[in-house]
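Re: the 611-residue chain
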Amino acid sequence: MTIVAFEVARSTPVTTSSVHERCTRTACKGPISRTCQIRRVDQGRFSAGTAAWQPHASVAERLARLAPDQRAAATAPPGPVLVVAPAGSGKTTTLVARVAWLVDGGTDPASICVVAFNKRAAVELTGRLDAALDPLGLAPGVVRVRTFHALGREILRDAGVSVDPLLDRDEVVRGLFPGIGPADRGRLDLAFSRLKLDLRVTADEVARDPAAGPVARAFVAYERAVRASGGVDFDDLVVRAVGCLGADAPLLARWRTRTATLLVDEAQDLDRTQLELALLLAAPANNLCLVGDDDQSIYGWRLADVRRVLGLASSLPGLRRVDLETNYRCPRPVVTRAVRLVEHNRERFAKRILARPAATGRLVLAPDAADDTVRVARAMRTWPADASTRAVLARTNRELLVAVVAAVELDVPFRAPDLQLPIEDPRLDGLLDRLDAARDQDEVGGWRAGAPPLLPALGRLRRDVRREDEDAGGEPSEEPTRADLVTALLGWAAALADAAALRSAVVERRAALARLRRDDAALSLATAHGTKGLEWDHVLVLTDGFPGRRSITDAVEPERALEEERRLAYVAWTRARRSLTLLYDPEAPSRFLEEAFDPDELGVQTVASAA
C-alpha cells in the first residue's frame, strides 16, 4: 500500500497522555478520533521528535488513487483556493478527498461546510462524504452539506427570522396574474430575481419610482403579497441571510465558526448574492475552496455571470488556482472537438484539457436531410442493443418533441421529467370536441367531392382559434398556442379518414406514452441546460438548435450571449462516455460544428479516434 506523507504545522504538541483520552465531540463514535487536534501516538502515525504525519490508511489510499493534479487540489494549503475543474475531470472525487484530508489533518468537521449547486447534488455529495468519513470515526451527516438556499434558511432561523411559509413564486404569480402563461411567468421570475439579487432593491423603493413600468409594478404587487403572507420566497432565504449577517455581529461570528472551512461547488454559476454570502462567511481567514469551470457557466438566465469566477482573484487576495487537466469521461475525439469549440470564447481561463491516455470511444458526425422524426429514429437505431444508458439532448424542449415521436415509433421507453408534450395538453380535448361539433353541424362545408373532410376541417379550426386568440390579446408566449396544437394534429390528419379516427389516434398515442414514459428508462430526453452533473454512455445531440437564435437576438450583449451558447454546446457534447453523435442538416450545419470541424470533415460520417 502506498502511504503519502505530508508535512503539517501543529499548533499543539501531541503527548503520550492523550492516548487514553476519549473524544467528547458528538461527531465522533468512539475513542479519540482523527477529527481532533490530539493524535493517537500508539498507532505510529507520528515520528518521535518531528511533525511528520502519516494520514489514516483510508485517506492515504484515497489520495493515492488521485491523479497528481487532483491530489494537488485535494491537499492545497489553507487559504483561498480555486479548483478549475473541466467536464469529466473528477471534481466531486477531488472535493470528497479534500474534505477527508482536512478532517484527518485535524480540521473540526463541525466547522466544515460544503455548498452544492442543487438539492440533488447535495444528497449525492452527502452520501459520498459519509462513506469517506466513516473510517475516520465520524457519524453520518456531521459535515454540513447544503445548498445556498438551505444554508440561508438555517442562518435566518438562527437569527430568529421566520422562514415559514416558504412560498412558491410561480404559485403566487399565478394567483396575482391569472391571465399570463408559463413563459411570461418565467420572465417575471427572472426579473424579480434580478431586482432582489442583482440590483438589491426593495418593493418600497420601486414603488416610489414614478416611471416604474409594468414589470416593476408587478414586482411591487408580488412583494406585497409575500409580505402579507408572513413568509419568504427562495431568493429571500439568501438575500435576507446576507442582510442579517451584516447587521448582527454575534450571528456572523457564530456562522463564521460553523463555516470556518468553506467549500463551494459549481462556483461558475453563483449569482451576485450567493457569492457575497460565501465571501462574507469565509472572511477574514478566507479558508475558502471554490470548485468550478468557467467553460460550463450556462445559467445566465439565472443571474450567473462567468466574469464572477474569472475575477475571483480581485475579491480573494492570494487566491491559489489549481487546474484539473484531464477529462476522464469522454472519448478522445469528443474532448478534442469540444475543446476546439469552446476555445473560440474570449471570456475564459487559458487552460489545458486532455483526454485520459486510454480513452476510447467515438464521435459520429451524422448529416441527415430527412424529416426530423425519421433522422432522429435513424440515429437512435445505431446505438448498441445492450443495457447502456443513452440520451437525446437538444437546445429547447420544443426540439425534443421529435425525439418523443421517434421513441414511441421505436417502442423505446424514455424519461423526460421536464418535457410537456402537446398531446398531453388538456386544451387538445376541447379542440377535438369542436372538430366533432363542426362535423355534426355540417359547419365545414365547401369540400370537393371525394376530398378527405378532415384536412379542411382542421384548417378552418386553426384559422378560427388563431383569430379568437388574436382578438383576446395578450403578450407573446413560448407556450404552444391553440393554433400550434391544431397544426400538430394536421401532421397526423393526412393518414386518417375522419375526426373519429383522429380522436382514436390521440387516445392510442396517449396510452403509448403512459406505457413508455418511465422514470427508470435507459433513454433520457433532456435540454442541455438540464444535463449538468449527468452523463450517459451514448449521447445524440440535435445540433441544429445551437446556438439559440432568440437567446442572442434578445440579448443586451449578443457576443457574450453567443459565448454562453457555445459553452452550452460544450456541456452537451461532454456528457458522452462511449459515443457522441452530432445530428445536423448537411445543407446548413450549425456554426458551432463549423468551428469545431474542418469543412471536409462535416461531409465525413465518422471521426476516428487519434489514439
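Confidence is low (pLDDT under 50) at residues 1-50, 443-452.
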